Amino acid sequence: MSVSGTPGGSATKTNTVTISSGTTTTTTSSSGGGGGGGGGGTTDTKGKWSVMDKGVVHKLRITDKTIGIKEISIEVHNKVYNVTVSVVKLAGQPATVTHSVSGNVYQWMEITHDNLTDSNVKSAKIRFNISRSWLINNSFSSSDVALQRYNNGWSKITVTKVSESTNDFEYQADVPGLSVFTITAERSATAPAIACGNNMREGAEECDGSDLAGQNCVSKGFTGGTLKCSSCLFDVSGCIAPTGTGGPVCGNSACEAGEDVTSCPEDCKSFELPNITIGYGWLMTIIVIIIVGIAGWFYYHGHKHVRRLVYKYQK
């Protein structure tokens, strides 16, 4: 949980609050320099601003990976004080929503705000993620994704895909206000059916059977091996990592940095020194020899001292 301020361009400044689920974070200033402190746990995920000034983009970043919304950016017409913005992941359609939403729902969310009216919101943006595997399992393409807002009825908001990874897609949308939202996916009636397992890469699929989209282990950053496709996602378990790169490899008979007897007993079952491996049996033998040697030294020198005392006494 952190609070930071960063420049947002020549025309505006940016005031950023980063929060995780079940916490409240409070900013003490709306200037570009940032500042502030944190609050205790609550039932909602909240960001608080003592001041929201105009000419500043106020960002609320959410690090909880279970929440689809990752960032909310707000700019106001007029300065407001003691603003609270809450983000809640809902289990389903709330009772206040009386209309059905179209498409398949990926996630329900509600954004509430205190001391901030929709009319005072000059602009608002939402960044959100959707799981690639969810799209594949439900036969959707990344272009089928939408953000929908409820305000006495549903309105579908145009989204722009800004990035993608093996795990998910990230989108951004300009929203007219903050209320109940759903991340949905809906395929047009004319769109062809998408099916994982037909050896044809479609929609959100990275690959499909033998169709690897021209990719191989080398193009994925490895030195060789066999790239596979599992559930229409790349499987790099058969690829060979470059020597000296990446993390430790368990099972290569070398106890490397990051491995121990708990995480990798195959490699770390013995004590290792440079070019020398000392097993537990040899170690115990060495310890016994050392102990016997020390005991012998004390025994010899102790008896030598006693003989000297006896000799002096006899004289």
Structural descriptors:
single chain; 315 residues; mainly beta; Chondroitinase Ac, Chain A, domain 3; 3 domains; seven-stranded mixed beta sheet; 13% helix
In short:
By secondary structure, the protein is mainly beta.
List the helices and strands and how they pair.
Elements: E1 2-7, E2 13-19, E3 23-27, E4 37-41, E5 45-52, E6 56-62, E7 69-76, E8 80-90, E9 104-114, E10 121-131, H1 132-137, E11 145-150, E12 154-157, E13 160-164, E14 168-174, E15 180-185, E16 224-225, E17 228-230, E18 233-235, E19 239-240, E20 271-273, E21 276-278, H2 280-314
Parallel strand pairs: 2-6, 3-5
Antiparallel strand pairs: 1-2, 3-4, 5-8, 6-7, 7-10, 8-9, 9-15, 10-14, 11-12, 11-15, 13-14, 16-19, 17-18, 20-21
Protein model, in words:
The chain is mainly β and 315 residues long. The chain has three domains: 184 residues, Chondroitinase Ac, Chain A, domain 3, CATH 2.60.220; 45 residues, no CATH class; 36 residues. It has two helices and 21 strands. The strands form five sheets. Strands 4-3-5-8-9-15-11-12 form an eight-stranded mixed beta sheet, with no helix packed on it. β1 and β2 form a beta hairpin. The longest helix is centred in the C-terminal third of the chain and has 35 residues. It is flat and about 105 Å long. The protein starts with a strand and ends with a helix. 24% of the residues are buried. The N terminus is likely disordered.
What is the CATH architecture annotation of the largest domain?
Sandwich
* Helicity level: 10-25%
Gyration radius over CA? 32 Å
**Shape label:** flat
* Major beta-sheet overview: 8 strands, mixed
Domains, number: 3
Widest β-sheet, arrangement of strands: 4-3-5-8-9-15-11-12
